[in-house]
Structure prediction request, 350 residues.
Amino acid sequence: MKFAHGARVIGVGAGLPQVVVTNFDLEKLVDTSDEWIKTRTGISERRIASDEETTSQLAIAAAQDAIGFSGINPEDIELIVVATSTPDNLYPSTACMVQGAIGAKRAAAFDMEAACTGIVYALAVAQQFIGSGTFKCALVIGVDIHSRFLNWSDRNTCILFGDGAGAFILQATEKNEMLGTYLRADGTGGHLLHIPNTGSAYPHAGVTPPQATHGFLEMNGRAIYEFAVNAVPEAVRAACAEAGISVEDVDFLIPHQANMRIIKSAAERLGMAAEKIVSNVGEMGNTSAASIPLAMWQAIRRGQIKEGSTCALVGFGGGLTWGAAIVKWTAVDQRQTNADEKTTKKEAKI
Ligand SMILES: CC(C)(COP(=O)(O)OP(=O)(O)OC[C@H]1O[C@@H](n2cnc3c(N)ncnc32)[C@H](O)[C@@H]1OP(=O)(O)O)[C@@H](O)C(=O)NCCC(=O)NCCS
Prediction:
């Protein structure tokens, strides 16, 4: 698609809970093992939010990190889009909470939900506003605290997810660096990955507290696996075609971090060498809408992604939804930080 104005990513940031939960910690909760989890998923540990940490807090931390990276003033931001399935409350939106907290006085703000693909959808939405000339600077955040919606006695699901937030700053530019996007959905597969009894279709919600309780994430793991290994190559190929480049021109594949086996299988189907894969699923687990910016944030800090790299950001998840964005990374960290990740870790208390 041709836009009147170009857009580029000028900052990336992260907001992470402090507590690390390892596979060994989970061995104490459910009938599982570190070996099973690592072999089937590639995950060793994940961050889990404490009772005091909220979705909006993580989102605000990621926003401030990305603002620092890009060197912009919060008042430069004209649009805030937050992708989340797990907001603090139905409203106010997480985006409005971020807007108030960071002092983005000139910004419009709203949330959108496309489960784990949410950040790709949100990037595409922000690009539309910048491309049309409506706004010049946008803050795009993916954030989720899935741990609050997990059944911690279900070994099929509780081992997979982590909590976190990742943010991008997008700016209007003469030379477009957001080269192509592709978005798809298939609502007939919604039941394969869902969190029932959490909305207005749940008749007890809010009626009989404190007895009322919400539902938990339910998943057909095999079906989602099959869906994902096909959806990722489809989305990357289509977004590359939209960008006018070939898959070989992609320097880095930054996929939704759900499972290392899905990521490797999809990369193989695309004919991509292992060195092109960006992954932090081993230490973060599946952080849903946050996973792509968190993986990119770490890869930039570690020097894996360098200026001028062409990156394929590709997501898949509940809905079902899937999509990709081809982004040329040309930003420089305005803080000139070293490679240290300035996050602190605490021992898990479970
Ligand atoms: C969930 C997933 C890791 C399971 O891996 P798998 O190879 O498909 O495993 P299977 O479903 O064949 O299960 C094998 C066995 O392991 C068991 N098992 C499941 N979870 C386990 C765990 N945490 N520890 C030990 N055993 C476990 C199953 O009960 C099953 O036992 P059974 O054969 O006695 O019934 C995999 O299907 C997957 O990653 N799916 C995609 C999930 C996903 O990414 N969701 C989010 C998308 S956004």
